[in-house]
Design goal:
single chain; 8-stranded mixed beta sheet; alpha/beta; Rossmann fold; GMP Synthetase, Chain A, domain 3; 5-stranded antiparallel beta sheet; globular
């Protein structure tokens, strides 16, 4: 039984079961909207407004400059920026030139950045000036030729960059060489995600994958999204696939306005809400926790927000209720993954919400629960298995990783690796993470990736990483380590070592020292046993 078809059989008069995806590229989408709504504000950034006409002009200019600098169809161009107008201009400029956006987390350390650049083969990068030294430090170990540096308000410049963003825009003549884009086959974005083997993988998302997910999400929320009238508080980072589509692309498709913030700082967010009065606020639970717990939150006009779609981490039911009480908004918890552009499920705004579930499939999305052994047999309703998904938003595959692709994409289905169950109405509950993924503040952290760094510490003999509950971040990273005989190390020393070698959000915040780790008869560390011991440990 297809679970989504089951849901629509219960509610036949709500939204379309299937949606039609026009054969358009993402630049086609933007051009069409900019032509129809040229004077609408597309972006607000630190009190500066940019209309759709101005955005389209800047995108065209950037694409022209890229082509003048030798960028051709299929070339990879990296973006290492927080949310800012230059990110959007770069993103759509790269696509307009026929190139592929390579997403880079601005919190990446040198070794992480080097892997993404070398794996993708990017030769051009657009980077925040504060991160310029990191790029320069690894440039000689990559093929990077062009570094375009973005300066933001309130920043201090203490170096002379290769090229500034503004200077680069002046290099073009505004003329673009025509590029033929095949939406179904041509990759638009390489979305790097962690791997259980420790190797970050480039998810290949085509123009059709991303555009399809935009249309699927619009169909799902259309009763509460008015074309050209909404204001989207865009603080979820665009380098994250959730922010890319739920904030940037969906807002552009609906001719609405993005209120950009480079990062989540509570008082800046509250003051922005008070000044700009956003109506839509995509977020992760930690953001809603911070706002809910501020004693004067209601004085900042947070009741302007009418809808929030929450993703990237489980939403505690009590938090959902508290936030809705003080805002009057509806929080709709959903589910997605990089390999699905990302949204596959969400609690409906037009029908029953079931807190604690991730809702039903968005239109044109099939899903079912299959056995954990072979993955070939669908399990009965209510029983636990692996969630698999099929739809137009599902990735083309992993960049240069055919074996990984074959394991994840089977007979047209995406095997998510998430353990779940589905009820008689088609609502999905995520039970556990088959991949041992840790989610802290909405960021995905793969234990193996952290463990590999821990094993580089000269005093550590064995290490395992697990997620432990945290009321604010959702989960914290905990390292359980065994030291080498005769060696000593403190918790602070190990945490500091990790901070030097990985992005801050990945580094353990807790280190436990043990004489030995639980293992199977063949010596495999029992990660699940450590988690189980934590769950049963008395308070």
């Amino acid at each position: 039984m297809n679970a989504n078809k089951a849901w629509f059989s219960h509610y036949p008069d709500t939204i379309a079961t299937e949606v039609t995806i026009p054969r358009k590229s993402l630049p086609d989408m933007l051009h069409e909207i900019a032509s129809k709504y040229p004077s609408n504000n597309a972006i607000t950034f630190f009190n500066k407004k940019i209309t759709y006409q101005e955005l389209q002009y800047a995108v065209t200019a950037f694409a022209s400059c890229l082509q003048k600098n030798g960028i051709q169809k299929g070339d990879r161009v990296a973006i290492m920026l927080p949310n800012c107008p230059q990110y959007i201009i770069s993103f759509y400029g790269i696509l307009t030139a026929g190139a592929i956006v390579t997403q880079v987390n601005p919190m990446s350390v040198e070794r992480e950045l080097k892997h993404v650049i070398n794996d993708s083969g990017a030769e051009t990068i657009i980077v925040l000036e504060a991160l310029y030294p990191i790029v320069k430090a690894i440039q000689h170990e990559t093929n990077i030729k062009n570094i375009i540096v973005v300066s933001l308000p309130r920043s201090d410049k203490n170096f002379t960059p290769d090229r500034t963003f503004e200077g680069f825009l002046r290099e073009g003549n505004g003329q673009i060489l025509p590029v033929s884009i095949q939406p179904e086959n041509d990759v638009a974005v390489l979305q790097y995600t962690g791997g259980t083997t420790g190797r970050s993988k480039g998810v290949m998302l085509t123009h059709r994958n991303i555009f399809a997910n935009v249309i699927q999400c619009y169909e799902f929320f259309k009763e509460h999204i008015e074309i050209g009238k909404e204001r989207n508080l865009s603080v979820i980072p665009f380098f994250h696939v959730f922010g890319m589509n739920s904030c940037m692309n969906l807002t552009l498709y609906t001719a609405n306005e993005m209120i950009l913030l480079p990062r989540f700082e509570l008082m800046e967010v509250l003051n922005t809400i008070k000044t700009e009065q956003p109506t839509i606020f995509p977020g992760v639970p930690t953001m809603y926790v911070a706002i809910t717990n501020h004693p004067e939150a209601e004085e900042y006009g947070i009741n302007s927000i009418k809808i929030c779609n929450s993703g990237s981490a489980p939403m505690p039911v009590e938090l959902l209720n508290q936030f809705e009480r003080i805002t009057g908004a509806k929080i709709l918890e959903g589910y997605g993954l990089s390999e699905a552009s990302p949204t596959t499920h969400c609690n409906p705004v037009f029908a029953e919400r079931k807190p604690g579930t991730v809702g039903i499939g968005v239109p044109s999305t099939d899903y079912k629960i299959v056995d954990l052994g072979t993955g070939n047999e669908e399990v009965p309703t209510g029983e636990i298995g692996e969630l698999i998904i099929r739809g137009p938003q599902i990735m083309k595959g992993y960049w240069n990783m055919p074996e990984e692709t074959a394991l994840t994409l089977r007979d047209g289905w995406l095997y998510t690796g998430d353990i779940a169950k589905v009820d008689e109405d088609g609502y999905v509950s995520i039970i556990d993470r088959k991949k041992d993924l840790i989610i802290a503040s909405g960021y995905n952290i793969y234990p193996r990736e952290v463990e590999e760094i821990l094993y580089e510490h000269p005093c550590i003999k064995e290490a395992v990483v697990i997620g432990v509950p945290d009321p604010y971040r959702g989960e914290n990273v905990k390292a359980v380590v065994v030291l080498k005989p005769g060696k000593t190390a403190t918790e602070e020393e190990i945490i500091e070592f990790c901070l030097r070698n990985m992005a801050t959000y990945k580094a353990p915040r807790i280190v436990e020292f043990r004489e030995q780790l639980p293992k199977t008869s063949v010596g495999k560390i029992l990660r699940r046993a450590l988690r189980k011991a934590l769950e049963t440990k008395p308070n």
